[in-house]
Amino acid sequence: MGGHDHAAPLVAYLGPEGTFTETAARLITGDDAGEHLVPCADVTEVLRRVETGDAARGVVPIENTLEGSVTATLDALAFDTDLLIHGELELPVALVAAARPGTTLDEVVTVQSHPVALAACRRWLSTTVSGAERVSVASTARAAQLVAEAGDEDGPQLAIVNPLAARRYGLEVVARDIADRPGNSTRFVVVGGQLSAPTGWDKTSLVVFIETNRPGALLQLLEIFAERELNLTKIESRPTKAELGEYCFFADVEGHLADERVGDAIAAVKRTQRDVKVLGSYRRSGARAPAEADRIAADDAAYRQAAEWLAGWRARIEH
């Protein structure tokens, strides 16, 4: 890291260079040149660098429209670290076909990319370069690197990558927006050591360890949030890795830990379940809807007034 200017804090991200995560890290930090971004081999290394203070923050993927949750990130946040989510960013996954300058599509003999990217472009590949061999590699950035470094004896090659990787490795984009389904996005999260301050447009992420795996356990959990009119934007189960058949629930709830209703709900979960771990309370991605934000503030005020009314009655009890 000797080449970095330490006047600005370093940000670790899931590498290698040229990945969608680097694009997300540049957008989140505003570091368009990437001078203070540090690529890491896996999610564990990203979190370790932040834990040791080697980086101020980390950026990792957590969910994809087509593939669902990134289990490595969920498990690491739940079981391996006390770091917290600071914020999130949803990034459209724009895939392009790129090759060495001068290559035409009709002469391509090999197509390289990450398996997910190859699957996302199956229709385009079968109609445009149907005779080319498809080769799976570790990442889209790695595919760009391999195509850029390929010798003439390997024949014309194509990489399915993001635009950043094509630029990084000097490839020429020969086709754009080649994914079979438009609208594929990946959600990235920023991790750090502290809870973020409330913004009025927030989300709180939790992992809940249920008392026992019994009928109605999930319903009891859901009712806690329903009774307080809190919207769960996501809930899914994952093995606890402690015992076969033992599961925990990952949940995202609208609102901040500082909000009356959200805090009361989490306290109720803590009281009724074996354990709960807060993974972060942070600003939601997307533009804030003023009407929605006003409704949340009004609901929270009503909830607080009801609690104060009850406290007033309790104060009148004889001691």
Describe the structure.
The protein is of the alpha/beta class. The chain folds into 3 domains: 8-93 and 183-194, 3-Layer(aba) Sandwich (D-Maltodextrin-Binding Protein, domain 2), CATH 3.40.190; 96-175, D-Maltodextrin-Binding Protein, domain 2 (3-Layer(aba) Sandwich), CATH 3.40.190.10; 195-309, Alpha-Beta Plaits (2-Layer Sandwich). It is 34% helix and 28% strand. β13 and β14 (247-254) form a beta hairpin. The longest helix is centred in the last third of the chain and has 26 residues, at 290-315.
> What is the CATH homologous superfamily assignment of the largest domain?
ACT domain
The coarse silhouette is elongated
Helix content: 25-40%
Q: What would CATH call the architecture of the largest domain?
A: 2-Layer Sandwich
Distance, first to last CA:
65 Å
The ordered H/E elements are: EHEHEEHEEEHHEHEHEEEHEEHEH
Strand content: 25-35%
Uncertain residue ranges: 1-6
The description of the largest β-sheet is: 10 strands, mixed
